[in-house]
UniProtKB/TrEMBL annotation:
The keyword Isomerase does not apply. NCBIfam families: PRK00011.1 (NF000586). GO terms for cellular component: cytosol. (6S)-5,6,7,8-tetrahydrofolate binds at residues 125, 129-131, 249. GO terms for biological process: glycine biosynthetic process from serine; tetrahydrofolate interconversion. Its cofactor is pyridoxal 5'-phosphate. It holds the Pfam family SHMT. This is Serine hydroxymethyltransferase. Keywords: Amino-acid biosynthesis, Cytoplasm, One-carbon metabolism, Pyridoxal phosphate, Transferase. Its EC number is 2.1.2.1. The record marks 233 as: Plays an important role in substrate specificity. The keyword Cytoplasm applies.
Length: 412
Protein backbone atom coordinates (compact mmCIF):
# COMPACT_ATOMS: atom_id res chain seq x y z
CA UNK A 1 0.00 0.00 0.00
CA UNK A 2 1.39 3.45 -0.83
CA UNK A 3 2.79 5.26 2.16
CA UNK A 4 0.59 8.34 1.74
CA UNK A 5 -2.56 6.25 1.57
CA UNK A 6 -1.60 4.45 4.77
CA UNK A 7 -0.95 7.72 6.55
CA UNK A 8 -4.10 9.37 5.30
CA UNK A 9 -6.32 6.49 6.29
CA UNK A 10 -4.71 5.56 9.55
CA UNK A 11 -5.61 6.02 13.18
CA UNK A 12 -3.02 8.75 13.71
CA UNK A 13 -4.82 11.06 11.31
CA UNK A 14 -8.12 10.57 13.12
CA UNK A 15 -6.70 10.78 16.63
CA UNK A 16 -3.92 13.34 16.28
CA UNK A 17 -4.32 15.37 13.11
CA UNK A 18 -1.72 17.86 14.33
CA UNK A 19 1.04 15.24 14.41
CA UNK A 20 -0.28 13.51 11.28
CA UNK A 21 0.08 16.82 9.44
CA UNK A 22 3.72 16.97 10.53
CA UNK A 23 4.33 13.48 9.13
CA UNK A 24 2.63 14.32 5.86
CA UNK A 25 4.58 17.58 5.71
CA UNK A 26 7.84 15.67 6.03
CA UNK A 27 6.73 13.17 3.40
CA UNK A 28 5.98 16.11 1.11
CA UNK A 29 9.39 17.68 1.83
CA UNK A 30 11.16 14.40 1.08
CA UNK A 31 9.12 13.89 -2.08
CA UNK A 32 9.51 17.35 -3.57
CA UNK A 33 13.17 18.14 -2.83
CA UNK A 34 16.30 16.27 -3.89
CA UNK A 35 17.76 14.16 -1.08
CA UNK A 36 21.49 14.39 -1.75
CA UNK A 37 22.50 13.65 1.85
CA UNK A 38 24.89 10.72 1.44
CA UNK A 39 23.65 9.01 4.62
CA UNK A 40 19.96 8.97 3.66
CA UNK A 41 17.72 6.75 1.60
CA UNK A 42 14.06 5.78 1.18
CA UNK A 43 13.15 2.51 2.90
CA UNK A 44 10.61 0.29 1.23
CA UNK A 45 6.97 0.25 2.37
CA UNK A 46 7.69 -3.29 3.69
CA UNK A 47 10.45 -1.95 5.97
CA UNK A 48 8.15 0.85 7.15
CA UNK A 49 5.43 -1.70 7.86
CA UNK A 50 7.76 -3.74 10.09
CA UNK A 51 8.77 -0.55 11.90
CA UNK A 52 5.17 0.33 12.58
CA UNK A 53 4.20 -3.19 13.66
CA UNK A 54 3.16 -4.56 17.08
CA UNK A 55 6.75 -5.74 17.56
CA UNK A 56 7.29 -2.16 18.75
CA UNK A 57 5.39 -3.18 21.91
CA UNK A 58 7.67 -6.03 22.89
CA UNK A 59 10.37 -5.95 25.54
CA UNK A 60 13.15 -8.41 24.76
CA UNK A 61 16.31 -7.95 26.82
CA UNK A 62 18.91 -10.56 26.01
CA UNK A 63 19.24 -12.76 22.96
CA UNK A 64 16.99 -15.35 21.25
CA UNK A 65 16.47 -18.31 23.58
CA UNK A 66 17.96 -16.39 26.53
CA UNK A 67 15.71 -13.43 27.27
CA UNK A 68 14.97 -11.68 30.53
CA UNK A 69 11.33 -11.24 29.52
CA UNK A 70 8.53 -13.69 28.82
CA UNK A 71 6.60 -13.91 25.57
CA UNK A 72 9.64 -13.61 23.32
CA UNK A 73 9.09 -16.79 21.33
CA UNK A 74 7.89 -14.94 18.23
CA UNK A 75 10.32 -12.02 18.31
CA UNK A 76 13.10 -14.58 18.82
CA UNK A 77 12.25 -15.96 15.37
CA UNK A 78 12.44 -12.45 13.90
CA UNK A 79 15.86 -11.80 15.44
CA UNK A 80 17.23 -15.19 14.36
CA UNK A 81 16.03 -14.45 10.84
CA UNK A 82 17.74 -11.03 10.85
CA UNK A 83 20.99 -12.58 12.18
CA UNK A 84 20.95 -15.44 9.65
CA UNK A 85 20.23 -13.07 6.76
CA UNK A 86 23.01 -10.67 7.83
CA UNK A 87 25.50 -13.52 8.17
CA UNK A 88 24.64 -14.87 4.73
CA UNK A 89 24.62 -11.42 3.09
CA UNK A 90 28.08 -10.44 4.35
CA UNK A 91 29.70 -13.87 4.75
CA UNK A 92 30.23 -13.31 8.49
CA UNK A 93 30.47 -16.02 11.16
CA UNK A 94 28.54 -13.85 13.59
CA UNK A 95 26.13 -10.92 13.40
CA UNK A 96 24.69 -8.80 16.19
CA UNK A 97 21.68 -6.85 14.91
CA UNK A 98 20.68 -5.15 18.16
CA UNK A 99 22.75 -1.94 17.99
CA UNK A 100 20.36 0.98 18.09
CA UNK A 101 22.55 3.06 15.77
CA UNK A 102 25.90 3.17 14.02
CA UNK A 103 27.36 5.00 17.01
CA UNK A 104 26.08 2.32 19.42
CA UNK A 105 27.71 -0.32 17.22
CA UNK A 106 31.06 1.48 17.41
CA UNK A 107 30.68 1.95 21.18
CA UNK A 108 30.07 -1.79 21.56
CA UNK A 109 33.04 -2.66 19.34
CA UNK A 110 35.30 -0.54 21.55
CA UNK A 111 33.73 -2.04 24.67
CA UNK A 112 34.41 -5.55 23.34
CA UNK A 113 38.06 -4.95 22.46
CA UNK A 114 39.42 -2.04 24.50
CA UNK A 115 39.91 -0.70 28.02
CA UNK A 116 39.56 2.98 28.90
CA UNK A 117 42.86 4.75 28.23
CA UNK A 118 43.86 2.49 25.32
CA UNK A 119 45.35 4.09 22.22
CA UNK A 120 43.31 3.94 19.00
CA UNK A 121 44.40 5.03 15.54
CA UNK A 122 41.57 6.37 13.36
CA UNK A 123 40.99 8.91 10.61
CA UNK A 124 41.22 12.40 12.13
CA UNK A 125 37.92 14.24 12.41
CA UNK A 126 39.15 17.13 10.27
CA UNK A 127 39.72 14.65 7.43
CA UNK A 128 36.42 12.78 7.67
CA UNK A 129 36.56 10.63 10.80
CA UNK A 130 33.20 10.17 12.58
CA UNK A 131 32.46 11.62 16.03
CA UNK A 132 32.97 8.12 17.45
CA UNK A 133 36.52 8.13 16.10
CA UNK A 134 37.88 10.30 18.89
CA UNK A 135 35.92 13.55 19.04
CA UNK A 136 36.46 15.29 22.40
CA UNK A 137 32.69 15.88 22.41
CA UNK A 138 32.05 12.12 22.24
CA UNK A 139 32.65 9.21 24.65
CA UNK A 140 35.38 7.99 22.30
CA UNK A 141 37.58 11.06 22.74
CA UNK A 142 36.93 11.10 26.49
CA UNK A 143 37.67 7.45 27.22
CA UNK A 144 40.37 6.55 24.72
CA UNK A 145 43.57 8.09 23.52
CA UNK A 146 42.95 8.69 19.81
CA UNK A 147 45.68 9.37 17.28
CA UNK A 148 44.45 10.66 13.91
CA UNK A 149 45.70 9.76 10.47
CA UNK A 150 44.84 11.99 7.52
CA UNK A 151 44.51 12.06 3.77
CA UNK A 152 47.01 13.53 1.34
CA UNK A 153 46.40 17.25 0.82
CA UNK A 154 46.97 16.96 -2.93
CA UNK A 155 45.06 13.81 -3.79
CA UNK A 156 42.60 13.46 -0.90
CA UNK A 157 43.60 9.78 -0.66
CA UNK A 158 44.50 7.89 2.51
CA UNK A 159 48.26 7.86 2.94
CA UNK A 160 48.83 4.21 3.96
CA UNK A 161 52.51 4.95 4.62
CA UNK A 162 51.47 7.55 7.17
CA UNK A 163 49.03 5.11 8.78
CA UNK A 164 51.85 2.60 9.10
CA UNK A 165 54.29 5.17 10.52
CA UNK A 166 51.74 6.34 13.11
CA UNK A 167 50.89 2.74 14.00
CA UNK A 168 54.58 1.94 14.59
CA UNK A 169 55.08 5.09 16.66
CA UNK A 170 51.94 4.80 18.84
CA UNK A 171 51.36 1.00 19.01
CA UNK A 172 47.55 1.35 19.13
CA UNK A 173 45.39 -1.37 20.61
CA UNK A 174 43.01 -0.90 17.67
CA UNK A 175 43.00 0.75 14.25
CA UNK A 176 39.73 2.05 12.85
CA UNK A 177 39.16 2.35 9.11
CA UNK A 178 36.05 4.11 7.92
CA UNK A 179 34.89 7.66 7.33
CA UNK A 180 31.87 9.85 6.88
CA UNK A 181 33.03 11.30 3.57
CA UNK A 182 35.83 9.23 1.98
CA UNK A 183 34.65 8.64 -1.60
CA UNK A 184 37.08 5.84 -2.50
CA UNK A 185 37.20 2.17 -1.61
CA UNK A 186 39.21 1.51 1.51
CA UNK A 187 42.11 -0.92 1.11
CA UNK A 188 41.14 -3.31 3.90
CA UNK A 189 44.03 -5.66 3.12
CA UNK A 190 46.51 -2.79 3.63
CA UNK A 191 44.89 -1.88 6.97
CA UNK A 192 44.96 -5.57 8.01
CA UNK A 193 48.64 -5.76 7.24
CA UNK A 194 49.43 -2.62 9.24
CA UNK A 195 47.32 -3.84 12.17
CA UNK A 196 49.10 -7.21 12.13
CA UNK A 197 52.51 -5.58 12.07
CA UNK A 198 51.79 -3.71 15.32
CA UNK A 199 49.55 -6.31 16.95
CA UNK A 200 46.41 -4.12 16.81
CA UNK A 201 42.78 -5.08 16.32
CA UNK A 202 41.26 -3.84 13.08
CA UNK A 203 37.81 -2.29 13.36
CA UNK A 204 36.12 -1.41 10.06
CA UNK A 205 33.45 1.25 10.52
CA UNK A 206 31.63 0.49 7.28
CA UNK A 207 28.57 2.61 8.13
CA UNK A 208 28.62 4.16 4.67
CA UNK A 209 29.69 1.45 2.21
CA UNK A 210 27.95 -1.56 3.81
CA UNK A 211 24.96 -1.31 1.45
CA UNK A 212 27.30 -1.33 -1.54
CA UNK A 213 29.02 -4.36 -0.02
CA UNK A 214 25.62 -6.10 0.21
CA UNK A 215 25.02 -5.39 -3.47
CA UNK A 216 28.50 -6.51 -4.55
CA UNK A 217 29.47 -2.97 -5.55
CA UNK A 218 32.24 -2.42 -2.95
CA UNK A 219 34.88 -4.61 -1.28
CA UNK A 220 33.79 -6.53 1.79
CA UNK A 221 35.68 -5.70 5.01
CA UNK A 222 34.49 -8.89 6.77
CA UNK A 223 37.44 -11.11 5.71
CA UNK A 224 39.94 -8.50 6.94
CA UNK A 225 38.59 -6.76 10.05
CA UNK A 226 38.26 -8.28 13.51
CA UNK A 227 35.02 -6.37 13.92
CA UNK A 228 32.88 -4.61 11.32
CA UNK A 229 30.46 -1.92 12.52
CA UNK A 230 27.75 -0.65 10.22
CA UNK A 231 24.52 1.25 9.94
CA UNK A 232 21.47 -0.29 8.32
CA UNK A 233 19.88 2.91 7.03
CA UNK A 234 22.22 4.32 4.42
CA UNK A 235 22.71 2.65 1.02
CA UNK A 236 21.53 -0.59 2.66
CA UNK A 237 18.05 1.00 2.73
CA UNK A 238 16.89 -0.51 6.00
CA UNK A 239 15.57 1.10 9.18
CA UNK A 240 17.72 3.49 11.21
CA UNK A 241 20.00 1.28 13.24
CA UNK A 242 23.32 -0.47 13.62
CA UNK A 243 24.86 -3.88 13.21
CA UNK A 244 28.10 -5.63 14.14
CA UNK A 245 29.77 -8.46 12.22
CA UNK A 246 32.69 -10.52 13.51
CA UNK A 247 34.32 -13.94 13.64
CA UNK A 248 33.03 -16.62 15.99
CA UNK A 249 35.96 -16.13 18.41
CA UNK A 250 34.74 -12.60 19.25
CA UNK A 251 31.00 -13.37 19.07
CA UNK A 252 30.40 -13.67 22.80
CA UNK A 253 32.45 -10.58 23.66
CA UNK A 254 30.62 -8.52 21.04
CA UNK A 255 27.20 -9.73 22.16
CA UNK A 256 27.95 -8.92 25.80
CA UNK A 257 29.35 -5.53 24.78
CA UNK A 258 25.98 -4.71 23.16
CA UNK A 259 23.77 -6.19 25.88
CA UNK A 260 24.07 -5.79 28.84
CA UNK A 261 27.14 -3.55 28.67
CA UNK A 262 26.00 -0.64 26.48
CA UNK A 263 22.31 -1.22 25.72
CA UNK A 264 19.11 -2.45 27.32
CA UNK A 265 16.14 -4.05 25.60
CA UNK A 266 16.45 -4.79 21.90
CA UNK A 267 14.07 -2.86 19.63
CA UNK A 268 12.27 -5.75 18.03
CA UNK A 269 10.32 -3.74 15.44
CA UNK A 270 13.61 -2.33 14.16
CA UNK A 271 15.23 -5.76 14.17
CA UNK A 272 12.30 -7.13 12.15
CA UNK A 273 12.70 -4.22 9.74
CA UNK A 274 16.42 -5.00 9.48
CA UNK A 275 15.49 -8.58 8.55
CA UNK A 276 13.21 -7.26 5.80
CA UNK A 277 15.98 -4.97 4.49
CA UNK A 278 18.55 -7.81 4.52
CA UNK A 279 16.07 -9.93 2.58
CA UNK A 280 15.68 -7.15 0.02
CA UNK A 281 19.45 -6.61 -0.15
CA UNK A 282 20.02 -10.27 -1.08
CA UNK A 283 18.07 -9.93 -4.35
CA UNK A 284 19.47 -9.34 -7.85
CA UNK A 285 17.37 -6.15 -7.96
CA UNK A 286 19.33 -4.75 -5.02
CA UNK A 287 22.64 -5.63 -6.62
CA UNK A 288 21.55 -3.74 -9.75
CA UNK A 289 20.50 -0.85 -7.50
CA UNK A 290 23.88 -0.74 -5.71
CA UNK A 291 25.77 -0.69 -9.01
CA UNK A 292 23.46 2.05 -10.33
CA UNK A 293 24.10 4.10 -7.18
CA UNK A 294 27.84 4.04 -7.99
CA UNK A 295 27.29 4.73 -11.71
CA UNK A 296 25.12 7.72 -10.78
CA UNK A 297 27.70 9.05 -8.31
CA UNK A 298 30.39 8.80 -10.97
CA UNK A 299 28.33 10.77 -13.48
CA UNK A 300 27.48 13.38 -10.86
CA UNK A 301 31.18 13.73 -9.98
CA UNK A 302 32.24 14.01 -13.64
CA UNK A 303 29.55 16.55 -14.49
CA UNK A 304 30.22 18.68 -11.40
CA UNK A 305 33.91 18.64 -12.36
CA UNK A 306 32.97 19.81 -15.86
CA UNK A 307 30.95 22.62 -14.26
CA UNK A 308 34.09 23.84 -12.49
CA UNK A 309 33.74 22.43 -8.96
CA UNK A 310 36.84 20.76 -7.54
CA UNK A 311 36.02 17.05 -7.11
CA UNK A 312 38.05 15.63 -4.23
CA UNK A 313 40.14 12.58 -5.26
CA UNK A 314 39.05 13.32 -8.85
CA UNK A 315 35.94 11.16 -8.62
CA UNK A 316 34.35 8.38 -6.59
CA UNK A 317 34.17 4.60 -6.22
CA UNK A 318 31.09 4.73 -4.03
CA UNK A 319 27.71 6.35 -3.45
CA UNK A 320 29.26 9.58 -2.19
CA UNK A 321 31.40 12.36 -3.54
CA UNK A 322 32.89 15.44 -1.99
CA UNK A 323 33.47 18.68 -3.84
CA UNK A 324 34.94 22.08 -3.12
CA UNK A 325 32.70 24.83 -4.53
CA UNK A 326 35.42 27.50 -4.03
CA UNK A 327 36.31 27.70 -7.76
CA UNK A 328 32.75 28.98 -8.33
CA UNK A 329 33.42 31.75 -5.80
CA UNK A 330 31.34 30.33 -2.97
CA UNK A 331 32.26 28.58 0.29
CA UNK A 332 30.71 25.30 1.44
CA UNK A 333 28.34 26.74 4.03
CA UNK A 334 26.97 29.44 1.72
CA UNK A 335 26.66 26.83 -1.04
CA UNK A 336 24.63 24.52 1.20
CA UNK A 337 22.22 27.37 2.05
CA UNK A 338 21.78 28.41 -1.58
CA UNK A 339 21.13 24.82 -2.63
CA UNK A 340 18.65 24.26 0.20
CA UNK A 341 16.65 27.26 -1.02
CA UNK A 342 16.57 25.63 -4.45
CA UNK A 343 15.35 22.31 -2.99
CA UNK A 344 18.67 20.47 -3.12
CA UNK A 345 19.42 19.06 0.32
CA UNK A 346 22.99 18.09 1.17
CA UNK A 347 25.70 18.40 3.82
CA UNK A 348 28.96 20.26 4.30
CA UNK A 349 32.07 18.17 4.91
CA UNK A 350 35.78 18.32 5.62
CA UNK A 351 38.20 19.01 2.79
CA UNK A 352 41.66 17.41 2.61
CA UNK A 353 43.36 20.79 2.81
CA UNK A 354 42.78 23.91 4.94
CA UNK A 355 39.82 24.75 7.19
CA UNK A 356 37.28 25.54 4.46
CA UNK A 357 34.22 23.30 4.21
CA UNK A 358 33.29 21.35 1.13
CA UNK A 359 30.04 19.69 0.08
CA UNK A 360 29.21 16.00 0.42
CA UNK A 361 26.67 14.51 -1.97
CA UNK A 362 25.26 11.01 -2.25
CA UNK A 363 23.14 9.20 -4.80
CA UNK A 364 21.49 6.45 -2.71
CA UNK A 365 18.11 8.16 -2.33
CA UNK A 366 17.89 9.55 -5.88
CA UNK A 367 18.69 6.09 -7.26
CA UNK A 368 15.97 4.49 -5.14
CA UNK A 369 13.61 6.99 -6.79
CA UNK A 370 14.64 5.57 -10.15
CA UNK A 371 16.85 8.41 -11.34
CA UNK A 372 19.74 7.52 -13.63
CA UNK A 373 22.70 9.10 -15.40
CA UNK A 374 20.62 11.60 -17.41
CA UNK A 375 19.06 12.98 -14.23
CA UNK A 376 22.48 13.19 -12.54
CA UNK A 377 23.79 15.29 -15.43
CA UNK A 378 20.78 17.58 -15.18
CA UNK A 379 21.17 17.92 -11.41
CA UNK A 380 24.86 18.82 -11.80
CA UNK A 381 24.03 21.64 -14.25
CA UNK A 382 21.28 22.90 -11.98
CA UNK A 383 23.45 22.74 -8.87
CA UNK A 384 26.34 24.61 -10.47
CA UNK A 385 23.94 27.20 -11.94
CA UNK A 386 22.49 27.86 -8.49
CA UNK A 387 25.96 28.24 -6.99
CA UNK A 388 27.04 30.63 -9.74
CA UNK A 389 23.71 32.44 -9.37
CA UNK A 390 23.08 31.98 -13.09
CA UNK A 391 19.81 30.27 -12.20
CA UNK A 392 17.46 31.85 -9.67
CA UNK A 393 16.56 29.72 -6.66
CA UNK A 394 12.85 29.96 -7.58
CA UNK A 395 13.44 28.69 -11.10
CA UNK A 396 15.70 25.91 -9.81
CA UNK A 397 13.03 24.96 -7.23
CA UNK A 398 10.53 24.56 -10.08
CA UNK A 399 12.94 22.31 -11.96
CA UNK A 400 13.49 20.23 -8.83
CA UNK A 401 9.72 19.88 -8.41
CA UNK A 402 9.36 18.76 -12.00
CA UNK A 403 12.14 16.18 -11.56
CA UNK A 404 10.89 14.79 -8.25
CA UNK A 405 7.36 14.73 -9.67
CA UNK A 406 8.56 12.27 -12.29
CA UNK A 407 10.42 10.13 -9.71
CA UNK A 408 8.30 9.98 -6.57
CA UNK A 409 9.98 8.01 -3.75
CA UNK A 410 6.66 6.39 -2.81
CA UNK A 411 4.53 6.22 -5.96
CA UNK A 412 0.90 6.55 -4.84
C1 LIG B 1 31.51 6.28 9.59
C2 LIG B 1 30.32 6.42 10.48
N1 LIG B 1 30.33 5.83 11.67
C3 LIG B 1 29.28 5.92 12.51
C4 LIG B 1 28.15 6.61 12.18
C5 LIG B 1 27.05 6.74 13.19
O1 LIG B 1 25.81 6.31 12.82
P1 LIG B 1 24.52 6.79 13.62
O2 LIG B 1 24.22 8.20 13.17
O3 LIG B 1 23.47 5.80 13.27
O4 LIG B 1 24.86 6.77 15.08
C6 LIG B 1 28.09 7.25 10.94
C7 LIG B 1 26.88 8.02 10.56
O5 LIG B 1 26.80 8.70 9.61
C8 LIG B 1 29.20 7.15 10.06
O6 LIG B 1 29.20 7.75 8.86
Amino acid sequence: MPVTQTLEADALRRQDPELAEILLGELDRQSTTLQLIAAENFTSPAVLTALGSPLANKYAEGYPGARHHGGCEIVDVAERLAVDRAKALFGADHANVQSHSGSSAVLAAYAALLRPGDTVLAMGLSFGGHLTHGSPANFSGRWFDFVGYGVEAETGLIDYEQVHTLARAHRPKAIVCGSICYPRHIDYAAFREIADRVGAYLIADAAHPIGLVAGGAAPNPVPYADVVCATTHKVLRGPRGGMILCGSELAERVDRAVFPFTQGGAQMHTIAAKAVAFGEAATPAFSAYAHQVVANARVLADELGDEGLAVITGGTDTHLLTVDPAPLGVDGRTARGRLAAAGMVLDCCALPHGDARGLRLGTAALTTQGMGEAEMARIAVLLAGVLREDIEAKKAREEVRELTGRFPPYPG
